[in-house]
Design a protein that fits this description.
The complex is a heterodimer of chains A (171) and B (31).
Chain A lengths: L2 H26 L3 H18 L9 H20 L8 H6 L12 H13 L5 H9 L4 H8 L3 H19 L6
Chain B lengths: L1 H8 L10 H7 L5
Classes of the chains: A mainly alpha (171), B mainly alpha (31).
C-alpha cells in the first residue's frame, strides 16, 4: 500500500478511535510511565498494520484487534497470569461491601478500571468492547469468538457490573 | 447500565496523539 494511503488510514483511525484507545490503555496498564510506552507501541503498531490493511473488515474492527493484541501481549510479558482471574471466577467472589452509593464519577471510573485490570483475556477485551457500546456481533468479529459465546459473556458481565455498581449511576 | 457505558466513555484523553513523524521515527523508517 502506498505510504500516503497508510498515513491517511492511520489519521482516520486515530480521529475516530483515538479516545477509545486511551480508555483501553488505562484498563490494561496502571503505571502511567508504562502506559505512555504502551500508547506509543500501539500507535506505531497501528500505523505499521495499515500497510497490509485490505478492507476485508471494518476500520473499527481492525483498530480494536491491533490495539488489543498489542496491549495484551505487552501486559502478558510483565504480569504473571496468576494475578488475573476469569470472569467466572470474579462472579464467584464476594463483593466485600464495596458498592458505593455516593461515589464520584472519578471514583466510579477508577473502580471500574481496577475491576477490568483483574480480568484475564478474553474477558478483559470483551468487557472493554462492551463498555465502548458494542453489541455481541461486533465484539465477536473483533475477538474472533462465536457470537453466542460473546452474548453469554456479556450477560455475565452485565450481571457483574450491576452487582458491583448498582444501577451504574455514580450517585 | 447504559449510564455505566456513558460514564466509561466520558473519560478524557490522557495523552496527545503522536505525529506521523514521531511514528515513522519509532518505526525505524527514519534515520
Amino acid at each position: 500500500m502506498p505510504e500516503a494511503d497508510q498515513d491517511a488510514l492511520y489519521r482516520l483511525a486515530i480521529a475516530e478511535h483515538g479516545s477509545a484507545i486511551g480508555r483501553l490503555l488505562r484498563a490494561y496498564e496502571a503505571n502511567a510511565e508504562l502506559r505512555r510506552d504502551l500508547l506509543q507501541d500501539i500507535h506505531v503498531g497501528l500505523w505499521r498494520s495499515f500497510a497490509v490493511f485490505d478492507g476485508r473488515c471494518s476500520l473499527r474492527t481492525w483498530v480494536y484487534r491491533v490495539a488489543h493484541n498489542i496491549a495484551s501481549s505487552d501486559v502478558a510479558r510483565r504480569i504473571r497470569a496468576s494475578k488475573q482471574v476469569s470472569l467466572d471466577a470474579l462472579m464467584e467472589l464476594p463483593d466485600a461491601g464495596d458498592v458505593e452509593e455516593t461515589a464520584s464519577e472519578k471514583q466510579m471510573i477508577e473502580k471500574l478500571t481496577a475491576l477490568i485490570r483483574t480480568l484475564g483475556q478474553p474477558d478483559r477485551q470483551i468487557i472493554l468492547l462492551y463498555l465502548e457500546d458494542m453489541d455481541a456481533a461486533a465484539i465477536a468479529e473483533i475477538t474472533g469468538l462465536k457470537p453466542g459465546a460473546v452474548a453469554t459473556k456479556i450477560h455475565r458481565i452485565k450481571a457483574l457490573l450491576a452487582r458491583r455498581f448498582k444501577d451504574g449511576r455514580p450517585e | 447500565m447504559n449510564d455505566l457505558v456513558t460514564l466509561w466513555k466520558s473519560q478524557g484523553t490522557e495523552y496527545a496523539p503522536m505525529s506521523l513523524e514521531e511514528i515513522r521515527k519509532q518505526a525505524g523508517k527514519l534515520q
